[in-house]
């Protein structure tokens, strides 16, 4: 009887989850600079979901419904981008992944961290509460705000004494990028649970780690729609829900960006209109005003890039040479682990232009010795945003080595 109930419950849950049956992902030849203008126009078509933003030197990955496949194919063909099918039926992958998650619900984590599977929002909350409760002398929970759906925007602070500059890392600001929270959880685990081995890094800086910067959206990807990107804040006068929090920061906001609430990159009605971006913005300002913001890191996927300001302009920032030097050292530390190479450079020049992004904002409000980066983590699995469970630990291990190298270098530049 229990087995029958479980099967029926799983079947009902799957039926309520957006199926993506018949959706296809098209890829292309490698994108060149001359292609970007047309592709940026295509991005504004809400029928097409760009899994990776158009960037010079890599092919496209664009998902669309069965009804719009022909239109997408024709437009890519007109641009001589040589379209081909990357995934024939996304729905089969989504259903398989969802069923695996349902099975995990029968074996919840005991308020512990796991790098063997992707943790739910509640599991992340439980772990951060537990680890701080067990280590009150070096850690605390910092409530930064509350989301539209009432979820906490809660950072873990790791500190062993006052008077130090701060490092801030956020993860999961784009809901579907599931590989990013494990990076934040790895930092929490190493700095707190492995404090005896890693005290040197806590001696250098105070650490502020936000493992779920878009908890409403993250929950939604687990329970409703695997490819949801934005938050879940309704847009007055529109049926379309959500704003992209990483287009909502008060840096270059409004000079460009997506003004259509139905699109994935929607910038919102005003800078800092969203709880998520406002909370991060306030947090990094407070760090800068109380000791100084040494380093800001935002984690995303996918692409295997380590990028830095600016995103809103092709011009180089004032400390471009220093940002580049630190990024090269970091990339070398990562490559030394498993041989994976990260591409470095400014966002606009090596990845894509973006306005209203957290990385640019943190750099702009910081002093001349503030470093600010965005990690675009490796793709993996069948659709990139969620590398298979066996890849989680290698990815977070190499990023941890990179973060250590970056923090060590920055400590010499006070």
Helices and strands in order, then pairings?
Layout: H1 2-16, E1 24-30, H2 36-43, E2 48-52, E3 59-64, H3 69-78, E4 84-87, H4 90-104, H5 121-134, E5 139-146, E6 152-158, E7 166-170, H6 180-193, H7 195-204, E8 206-210, H8 215-223, H9 275-289, E9 293-301, E10 305-308, H10 320-338, E11 343-346, H11 347-351, H12 358-365, E12 371-377, H13 389-411
Parallel strand pairs: 7-8, 7-9, 9-12, 10-11
Antiparallel strand pairs: 1-3, 1-4, 2-3, 5-6, 6-8, 10-12
| Outline type | globular
- The SSE order reads HEHEEHEHHEEEHHEHHEEHEHHEH
The helix/strand class is alpha/beta
Number of strands: 12
User: What would you report as the Rg, rounded to the nearest angstrom?
Assistant: 21 Å
Q: What integer is the average pLDDT?
A: 91
Described by strand count, sense and barrel closure, the largest sheet is:
8 strands, mixed
Poorly predicted parts: 1-12
Bin the strand percentage.
15-25%
Distance between the termini: 65 Å
Quaternary structure annotation: single chain
Helix content range: 25-40%
How many alpha or pi helices? Answer: 13
Descriptive key words:
four-stranded antiparallel beta sheet; 414 residues; alpha/beta; eight-stranded mixed beta sheet; disordered N terminus
Overview of the molecule:
The chain is 40% helix and 17% strand. The protein is α/β, with parallel strands linked by helices and 414 residues long. The strands form 2 sheets. An 8-stranded mixed sheet has the order 5-6-8-7-9-12-10-11, sandwiched between helices. The protein has a 4-stranded antiparallel sheet with strand order 2-3-1-4, covered by helices on one side. Helix 10 (320-338) links the parallel strand 10 and strand 11. The longest helix has 23 residues, at 389-411. The model is unreliable at 1-12 (pLDDT under 50).
